[in-house]
Amino acid sequence: MNLTIIGSGYVGLVTGACLADIGHDVFCLDVDQKKIDVLNSGGIPIHEPGLREVIARNLAANRLKFSTDVRAAVAHGDVQFIAVGTPPDEDGSADLQYVLAAARNIGRYMTGFKVIVDKSTVPVGTALRVRETVAAELAARGEEHMFSVVSNPEFLKEGAAVDDFTRPDRIVLGCDEDVPGEKAREVMRRLYAPFNRNHERTLWMDVRSAEFTKYAANAMLATRISFMNELANFADRIGADIESVRRGIGSDPRIGYDFLYAGCGYGGSCFPKDVEALIRTAAENSHELKILKAVSSVNDAQKQVLAQKIIARLGDDLSDRTFAVWGLAFKPNTDDMREAPSRTLIAALLARGARVVAYDPVAIRDAKRAIELDLQDEPEWLARLTFANEQMEAVKNADALVILTEWKAFKSPDFDSLKKGLKVPLIFDGRNLYEPDAMREIGVEYHAIGRGG
Ligand code: NAD
Ligand code: UGA
């Protein structure tokens, strides 16, 4: 099939590359000329394991093309995936300007039947707005072409995106029941058939339910994390160990082990914004989602917990202290800094006069950019932030090590070198990487989340 992907970011690139990999002819569009130039020169603008190889072999096979040419993009694909960003608006609702711009372009240039697929995470009712936008453009041109808007939310995780896309737990497809909808359903069935090889993973539903399913999934996952974070803080208070509790409850198959890790708060481009957007959608419909409001405020508070532990131990004035920070991206195996807890923690340390030496295996460039933007009005703070090229270099002469992302390389460091590097053996761990007993045995003072203070 000829496919067009509008928006070549984390989701668009993975979708385009993986669909090319099963033989489709894919045109990836973006408005960002720099991104397209990088892609066309064999580079890749994001860190996503395995993606570079998939892109390279499909570029070589001429099944993948990157361009900013909107007209050519719309002409190319029988299926037009909209995979642009839906960032939070000022009031927390999803900003649909990029989705609707994509829809306008499709309406402006389409010349025959198109299946338009909403892959971006969009509030219930957006497919209808996309349909109206395309129809308005067609009417303005005085043309009539059949099209259908399908909701096909994406559930991939960054850092495991290629695997998640190619081996999905489920494929959610919301289609209309009218004639164009039936035609679109058939196209989508054929498109996703290779992903259903061993058993059927497609869940067919109405468009609004598909749109809602995406938010419900992210909201449920965020709820589990905030719930565990709240229990972890309480465990600290009462002298219990959240890791034992996690294993104790996760062993019940009705609960399961996944997404029960307490930490320094969830970040990323999705949970924070999607929880807020769902709360806003509810408010617009005169409905209050009380649990989700709590999930969001627990997470905001959780991003401060490690700073509070540091202050409780070292005092509020940190002006003669240096902190090594390991892990800047919002999670391992990505360079994505959106809503990363490191941004909050580093700002809190700098605000109290500390010096920070930060390290991340892949996100240093993006971290620099993000933190410089956050603190553009605080040049004096920024002057106290430096970046190390190597993890052990960061800890040299630091008063403490702070861990914010569970990169593999941080899980079993050479503790002798670590202790030699640090002024005193003191670790604040926002990801519970080590065993408190083992740390005690080797003489490291260890503060984690929900593990006894
Ligand atoms: P992103 O910011 O990485 O990429 C979006 C891209 O769209 C950018 O490159 C931007 O330049 C481009 N763009 C904007 N307007 C355009 C237009 N009119 N025409 C062509 N290109 C345009 O965003 P992302 O992380 O890939 O997320 C995209 C959507 O997918 C969001 O709704 C997000 O919530 C959802 N989602 C993201 C993930 C994830 O892990 N990142 C997972 C599932 C769903
Ligand atoms: C998340 C979902 O997992 C995907 O299914 C979804 O498609 C995506 O959002 C999206 O809609 O964009 P992602 O944000 O890439 O994926 O990463 P996650 O692995 O879910 O982690 C999100 C945040 O939660 C990270 O900051 C992580 O550290 C934190 N987390 C995760 C915890 O604190 N505890 C856990 O047990 C799990």
From TrEMBL:
<feature type="binding site">
    <location>
        <position position="214"/>
    </location>
    <ligand>
        <name>substrate</name>
    </ligand>
</feature>
<protein>
    <recommendedName>
        <fullName>UDP-glucose 6-dehydrogenase</fullName>
        <ecNumber>1.1.1.22</ecNumber>
    </recommendedName>
</protein>
<dbReference type="InterPro" id="IPR008927">
    <property type="entry name" value="6-PGluconate_DH-like_C_sf"/>
</dbReference>
<comment type="similarity">
    <text>Belongs to the UDP-glucose/GDP-mannose dehydrogenase family.</text>
</comment>
<feature type="active site" description="Nucleophile">
    <location>
        <position position="270"/>
    </location>
</feature>
<dbReference type="GO" id="GO:0051287">
    <property type="term" value="F:NAD binding"/>
</dbReference>
<keyword id="KW-0520">NAD</keyword>
<dbReference type="GO" id="GO:0000271">
    <property type="term" value="P:polysaccharide biosynthetic process"/>
</dbReference>
<dbReference type="Pfam" id="PF03720">
    <property type="entry name" value="UDPG_MGDP_dh_C"/>
</dbReference>
<feature type="binding site">
    <location>
        <position position="158"/>
    </location>
    <ligand>
        <name>NAD(+)</name>
    </ligand>
</feature>
<feature type="binding site">
    <location>
        <position position="338"/>
    </location>
    <ligand>
        <name>NAD(+)</name>
    </ligand>
</feature>
<feature type="binding site">
    <location>
        <position position="267"/>
    </location>
    <ligand>
        <name>substrate</name>
    </ligand>
</feature>
<dbReference type="InterPro" id="IPR014027">
    <property type="entry name" value="UDP-Glc/GDP-Man_DH_C"/>
</dbReference>
<dbReference type="GO" id="GO:0003979">
    <property type="term" value="F:UDP-glucose 6-dehydrogenase activity"/>
</dbReference>
<feature type="binding site">
    <location>
        <position position="121"/>
    </location>
    <ligand>
        <name>NAD(+)</name>
    </ligand>
</feature>
<feature type="binding site">
    <location>
        <begin position="259"/>
        <end position="263"/>
    </location>
    <ligand>
        <name>substrate</name>
    </ligand>
</feature>
<feature type="binding site">
    <location>
        <position position="35"/>
    </location>
    <ligand>
        <name>NAD(+)</name>
    </ligand>
</feature>
<dbReference type="InterPro" id="IPR036220">
    <property type="entry name" value="UDP-Glc/GDP-Man_DH_C_sf"/>
</dbReference>
<dbReference type="Pfam" id="PF03721">
    <property type="entry name" value="UDPG_MGDP_dh_N"/>
</dbReference>
<feature type="binding site">
    <location>
        <position position="86"/>
    </location>
    <ligand>
        <name>NAD(+)</name>
    </ligand>
</feature>
<dbReference type="InterPro" id="IPR001732">
    <property type="entry name" value="UDP-Glc/GDP-Man_DH_N"/>
</dbReference>
<dbReference type="InterPro" id="IPR017476">
    <property type="entry name" value="UDP-Glc/GDP-Man"/>
</dbReference>
<feature type="binding site">
    <location>
        <position position="30"/>
    </location>
    <ligand>
        <name>NAD(+)</name>
    </ligand>
</feature>
<keyword id="KW-0560">Oxidoreductase</keyword>
<feature type="binding site">
    <location>
        <position position="331"/>
    </location>
    <ligand>
        <name>substrate</name>
    </ligand>
</feature>
<feature type="binding site">
    <location>
        <position position="273"/>
    </location>
    <ligand>
        <name>NAD(+)</name>
    </ligand>
</feature>
<dbReference type="InterPro" id="IPR036291">
    <property type="entry name" value="NAD(P)-bd_dom_sf"/>
</dbReference>
<dbReference type="InterPro" id="IPR028357">
    <property type="entry name" value="UDPglc_DH_bac"/>
</dbReference>
<feature type="domain" description="UDP-glucose/GDP-mannose dehydrogenase C-terminal">
    <location>
        <begin position="324"/>
        <end position="436"/>
    </location>
</feature>
<dbReference type="Pfam" id="PF00984">
    <property type="entry name" value="UDPG_MGDP_dh"/>
</dbReference>
<dbReference type="InterPro" id="IPR014026">
    <property type="entry name" value="UDP-Glc/GDP-Man_DH_dimer"/>
</dbReference>
<feature type="binding site">
    <location>
        <begin position="155"/>
        <end position="158"/>
    </location>
    <ligand>
        <name>substrate</name>
    </ligand>
</feature>
<dbReference type="GO" id="GO:0006065">
    <property type="term" value="P:UDP-glucuronate biosynthetic process"/>
</dbReference>
<comment type="pathway">
    <text>Nucleotide-sugar biosynthesis; UDP-alpha-D-glucuronate biosynthesis; UDP-alpha-D-glucuronate from UDP-alpha-D-glucose: step 1/1.</text>
</comment>
